[in-house]
User: Which sequence fits this backbone?
């Protein structure tokens, strides 16, 4: 199972960007304990969680659910979960782009040289 | 249309170059049962699909196969980094190396370049979906064979992921075929004899 169970989890539907800023949680767990501060330890939601791994896990879940929904278009549970995962992914992208460079060309900033093509960030097949 | 996200669908981090493995793994890049054929087949078949679900599933699985193609290319790329001519000669990689150096070229393990005759688009939904079921199984078999011959855990890990996805795709195509058959039968009346 790729979803991490966590005591500290912010429900992406209730989180607002102003409160949590860039410390967005990568969980899709329904349990939400807003009082617990994100400690950033492995296994807990947190800014220190390897965001690349978390994003990959979530995107994989999204792709798989996408395929399932193509042939089960009226499955309510799957539809809800798909929406939730998609929202969580969106909330992670800002931090991802800051750390690893633009995920899509359109995520590039105005800095020179053009971030997308810059050798500062590796292409995915490079070790 | 197609967008690109600069991330592999599943990580490929191979520590030890090994062109001998690259020689047969290239088959899943440009071979008859490889990811190039799969993505081309599904993305071509999607145009003539008659129902919403079949159009969607062909489109989405075809797109996923492109990300698999990228992964296989990355595996071959990493397996051929930092080698020298001695290794090339000893590993049996010289035939490929002669024409492609350590580039990534779509061919099968015996050097036959990618050939679209490996795929079919009949424009008939039943035939096309049935072909897709077979295609996923054939791809799964080749991944089985790679696992039989590759010991390196860094290589086995992404290959196992790719193999599992073929099995999932097989399930999805099976569902799509069933849905289409139901749709085509919906006005038929079947009578039970006494």
Assistant:
């Amino acid at each position: 199972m790729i979803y991490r169970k966590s005591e500290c989890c912010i429900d992406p539907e209730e989180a607002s960007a102003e409160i949590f800023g860039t410390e967005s949680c990568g969980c899709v767990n329904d349990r939400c304990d807003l009082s617990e501060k994100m400690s950033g330890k492995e296994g807990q939601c947190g800014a220190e969680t390897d965001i690349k791994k978390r994003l990959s896990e979530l995107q994989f879940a999204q792709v798989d659910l996408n395929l399932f929904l193509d042939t089960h278009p009226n499955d309510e549970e799957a539809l809800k979960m798909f929406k939730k995962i998609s929202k969580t992914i969106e909330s992670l992208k800002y931090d991802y782009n800051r750390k690893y460079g633009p995920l899509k060309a359109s995520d590039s900033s105005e800095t020179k040289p053009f971030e997308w093509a810059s050798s500062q960030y590796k292409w995915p097949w490079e070790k | 249309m197609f967008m690109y996200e600069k991330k592999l669908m599943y990580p490929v981090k191979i520590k030890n170059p090994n062109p001998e493995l690259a020689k047969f793994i290239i088959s899943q890049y440009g071979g008859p049962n490889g990811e190039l054929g799969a993505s081309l087949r599904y993305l071509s078949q999607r145009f003539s699909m008659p129902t919403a679900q079949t159009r969607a599933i062909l489109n989405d699985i075809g797109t996923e196969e492109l990300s698999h193609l990228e992964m296989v290319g990355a595996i071959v790329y990493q397996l051929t980094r930092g080698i020298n001519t001695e290794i090339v000669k000893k590993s049996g990689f010289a035939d490929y190396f002669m024409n492609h150096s350590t580039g990534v070229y779509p061919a099968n393990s015996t050097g036959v370049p990618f050939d679209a005759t490996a795929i079919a688009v009949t424009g008939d939904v039943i035939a096309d979906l049935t072909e897709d079921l077979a295609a996923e199984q054939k791809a799964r078999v080749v991944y089985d064979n790679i696992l039989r011959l590759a010991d390196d855990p860094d290589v086995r890990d992404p290959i196992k992921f790719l193999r599992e996805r073929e099995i999932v795709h097989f399930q999805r195509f099976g569902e799509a075929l069933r849905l289409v058959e139901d749709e085509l039968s919906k006005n038929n009346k079947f009578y039970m004899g006494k």
Summary: The interface with chain A takes residues 3-14, 52-53, 56-57, 60-61, 64, 70, 73-74, 77-78, 81, 168-169, 172, 175-176, 179 of chain B (CB under 8 Å). The mean pLDDT of chain B is 96. Chain B has eight helices and no strands. Residues 153-185 of chain B form the longest helix (33 residues).
